[in-house]
Each structure stands twice: as C-alpha cells, then as structure tokens.
Amino acid sequence: MCGIAGIYGKQNKVNYPDLKLMGDKLAHRGPDGEGIWINEPDNIGFAHRRLSIIDLSDHGKQPMHYADKRYTITFNGEIYNYVELKRSLIDKGYKFVSDSDTEVLLALYAEKKEKCLSDLDGMFAFAIWDDREKELFLARDRFGEKPLYYAFINGAFCFASEMKALFAIGASAGTRPESVYKYLESNVLIDEQDPAGTFYKDIRQLDGAGFMIVKDAAIQKIKRYWSLDHVSINTQISLEEAAERFTELLTRSVKRRLRSDVPVGSSLSGGIDSSAIVLIANRLRNDRQIQNTFSARFRNFHKDEGRYIDMVIAKATGVSRHDVYPDIDKLIEEIETLAYHQEEPFYSGSIYNQYCVMRLAKEFDTTVLLDGQGADEQLGGYLHYYAHHLTYLITRQPLEFLRERKGYQKIHKSLQPYRIPRRLPLMYMKKYIFNREYVFDKDVRSLLVKDMTTTGLKALLRYGDRNSMAFSREVRLPFLSHELCEFIFTLPTNYILRRGWTKYILRKAVEGFVPEEITWRKDKIGFEPPQDDWVLRLKPMIEEYKSKTNYLDLTGGRAVTKITDWKWLMLKLFVK
Fold this sequence. Notes:
The protein is of the alpha+beta class and 576 residues long. The protein is 40% helix and 16% strand.
C-alpha cells in the first residue's frame, strides 16, 4: 500500500519540486520510503511513497523499471495472487530480481498489456509508462478499493492517490454547485450519471474496473474491463453445494490476503462478516502466530457490540483483542483532521470509529488489517433489499411471496410496507399460482449490482482507504475477491434472501464455526456510534456556520427541501 502521483506534460517540462510536493502530501500513505523519477525528455515523471508490505528490501522500491527501462511503474495496492502469477511467468521464461508483487505486475503487463487486468486478484491503482510507445497506462481495481484521481493543470495531465496532492500543485478546491445540490437534496455523493466526478470542479477519478490510456498528455481512451453483466444464473446448484463452494472461495480469499511480510490483524465488529473472517484467519494461521483484533466500543450505549465480540474471542485461539472507545470530545478535537483525510463529505460519524480503530492498530504495530466490508452489498445485507424482493414476488410468485412475507414477519416482527391484496388479479393467478420454478428477482439483482459497482460500496471504500492510510495501515477485504463476487451473482435470489433472512448463503456457509448467536443475528449494527448525541454536541459549531452561510451560493441558486444538521457540518468542512 502506497501513495502514487505523476505529471505528464506535452511540451512543458516536468518540475521536480512539484513531484516532490505531491509525494510529501501523500507521506502518510507511505512513510517507509520515497522515490521520484523523471524521463530524459523531462515530459513525464512519477512520485511514490512506500508502505513496505511485501519484500521489505530495496528491491521493492518504486518507481520501478522493467525490460531495460522500457516500462516504469508507480503502484499502490496489492496483487494477492502474485505468487501464482509469478510461477506462470517463470515457466514462460521471465526472470525476476525481487520478491515483490510490483515486479510481477510489470512483467505481466509486458506480457499481456491491458489484458493483464483480468488475471489480477487484488486491490490496486497504478500507472505504467511505456517508453517505446510513449504511452501512459493507468488502471484501477474492479471495485475501486484503491483511489486514482486526475486533473489537467497548466496543460499537464496530473494524477494522484489523493486529491490533496493535486490541490498542492494548482488544482482548484472549488466545489461543483451541482454536486453540492445533489448531496443536500438527495444525499447523493456518487453520481450514477457521472461516476468519474468528484465534489470538486477540477478533479475527476478513474472509476473502478477502469483503465485509461494517455498519449501526448491527452486522454485517448477510458474503458471498463470488468462487470457483472455477463454472469448467468445457475439454477441447478443446490443450497448445500452453494454453501460449500462459498466457503471454499472465501477461505481462499482470506488465505491470499494473509500474504505479507509484516503483521496482519483484523477489524472485529461482532457482526457475521468480520467474525467469519477472524475465525477463518484463525484456522489458517500456525500455532505460533497471534492475530490481533481491533474493535470500536461504546460505554453505556445499547448498541455496543462487546457481547458479540466476546463470543468470537472465546471461540478463537491465539487472538489478542484490543478495544478503543471513541468519544465526542475527541471527535470535536479531530474533526478537521478527519475531514482533511476524507476529502469529501461522509454520511455519519461512524467513520470516526474506524479512524480510531486504525490508530489503535498502529499503536500495536499491526500494519495490515482484514475487514468484512463488501459483504452487505453483494449478499443483500440491508433490509431495504427485502422491499424490492417482496414487491417483485407479489406479481410473479404469489405463493413464494406469502412464504417470504411470513418468514420476514416472524424474524422482524413487522412488515408495515407490504400488503398482499385480498384477491390476486386473475392474470397472476393463472400464470403464476402453480409455478414451481423459482423466478430470479431481477429487481434485487440490479440493485445489488448497482450498489457493488456504482454507488453504495464506493463511499465505504473511500472511508476505509482514507482512515487506514491516515495511520499508514493497509486494509484488505476478503469479500471483495472478484471470484467470490462472480459466484455469488450466479446464485438464485432465494439463496441470498430467504424466509426473512438476509445474507442467507453466508449464514449457511459459516454456521459450523461462527457462534450460532452471531450467525443468526437479526439486527445489524457494526461500529455504530450514538449519532444523535454526537450531533447535539456538535450543534454550536454547526449553528455558527449556518448563521454566516447562504447555502444558495453553494448550490448555484437551487433551493433544497431540507438541510440536516449533519449536512451543514459537511458544508462547513468541505465547501471552501
């Protein structure tokens, strides 16, 4: 995990101090070393800040060259399957001088160019300069775990891991009125119509699963290299077979994400996702390895997860537990710093809890943390997915609707929005009442795809990247193995949402080793703080800003229905 930056000018020469400044702004992402490279014509240069994870020697330093300096790379992230890829490349005659995944990535690009992206299991953002073709290639991992921003500054194409590096060399920090309006009116931070947009006028981002080719300092191509659109439904697989395959893929993902030359621990919230990862990692470790876990707790708060964390710790051997108790007084002191790292608005104070967890990991010298992020978005972990599911079933499979409604009511004790008519329309009766073939719910599928690749998950990944990097920690997400994700999307909806349960296939897969009370929990909390109490304490700061600000100046004159106190706080922090 690192910080990367670069400048590519068509005629103007690249300025070494600018690259140095960009690298310095990213020093928190990579405190273990820095490197700057500028080509001989002085029209392109890279900066790199290193957080040493794999191959701690100087052989892993960047920017790194390959093939007699035809290729030069600056790379942020991890290629988890680099061991397998390296073995395959050696069989083809490739030679290596390091044990780093960076060199493997360079060799694979030399072998396959942009087609190499399909072979990668990892989180990454990187730029490769091809000195023969005079072409800059940039790419980002499938889900967008690692950031990559870009802007045109004084005619040069500039990119960086964080926007602050672009601001430092002249990009405007002025916000886009349209973005401010959509956030205030509709709570939109990621625009489906313009996923490359940011909160700021001058800066855009390469979308997840995208690559870009830049030539003569101008963008020649932006293309998506991966999607879930091609995945077809497997109607033949049994629930038992699906649970077995799910366990196999998740275990392989955890095993690969344990590859590291520095200590690896886990975030532990007490929910099923993080609990499963901690316990799988515990199985894979040898007896001499201690797994540090890190959790956010809240004193005298009914949503504190301590009881469930206790269950996981009691089940696991060789685990050292560490808890932190975020509080509003500390948040008030640190909210400007938190905003500095986040760079764009966030939906609630819960991200401060993760921020505190990452600081705790640093205190206990744990550089890498596994985390359960990404499970909810692909496994229907939020109850609103059930609204779409039941709406779909009522007109297509009335009997299945009745069974699902009954299961939901039994578990959640209410089903206010859902009513089945006293008499179903005759067309539905004739067409569906005796239909025993399960109809795949296209509504839920499209919503899950959207949340995985377009909206919901992206904001959470940004929070995790900035919070971890603020303390030079690396977060790895086993649920975001593309192989696991693709498998999940082959499953019928009733393996995901079943008789009132969300994430049903995950529950079935882990019920043998995750404590039963966690496996079949009905509520979902995570690192949730006492948000209302926190906002109340922040009220004086908010009111002071409101008294001095006409929000219409920020939205381009467009009025909004209502602005919550939290959104006023976000305006104060991010609109300059």
